[in-house]
Amino acid sequence: MLDYPDITSCILWFAGCNMRCDYCYNPDIVFGKGKISVAEALTFILSRSKLLDGVVLSGGECTLHKEIIPLATAIKEMEMLLKVDTNGSHPERIRQLIAQRLIDYVSLDFKAMPDRFEAITRSSLYKEFEKTFFLLQHSKIPFEVRTTVHSALIPENDVMLMADHLVALGYRGKYYIQNFVGDTETVGVIQQAHKKVSTLRYSNPSVEIVIRS
Ligand code: SF4
Is this structure's pTM higher than 0.90? Predict the structure, then answer.
């Protein structure tokens, strides 16, 4: 009831990720090899296809797996809705999913401004993120942009700069902010966030900042 807006869904967490965000609370997924096969996942979804409206492909980074194309095809054949959660690092896979009309909704992580992207994600994948953003922007697929905020990594003022950056890229709509929770093991060694974003006075009406946590 949480992972796909207004839809009853199940979520598949794909093992592996090409980023290493210190605040990531899924180290077992990021460093793991996975526990069930795609075929087993499909069997499970089929058994729930009359109970659920949709499926969320998440991770880790689900777009790293080429198997998501046949998997998404099979899910769509069951007439279920499909959402993809992505860090935006594999635009080619997103392009394929769009071209084959396999996705209905995307949550795109905007990790950090270009000059902070490598420090936050331990990757040099900002350009890929931007390509994915523009692919979605020019498609008819509804999508949202979201950012996880840890106060030591992304201070409140940076959130405003990131919102401005999205406006400059042409984004219009809601920009979701998720506060780092910090109640579990993380990928990197990271201190507790000393402050959470609770309200923000952001004045550009093109983008509405929504605090989700
Ligand atoms: S938070 Fe970062 S490391 Fe964790 S799954 Fe997402 S992109 Fe990968």
Answer: yes
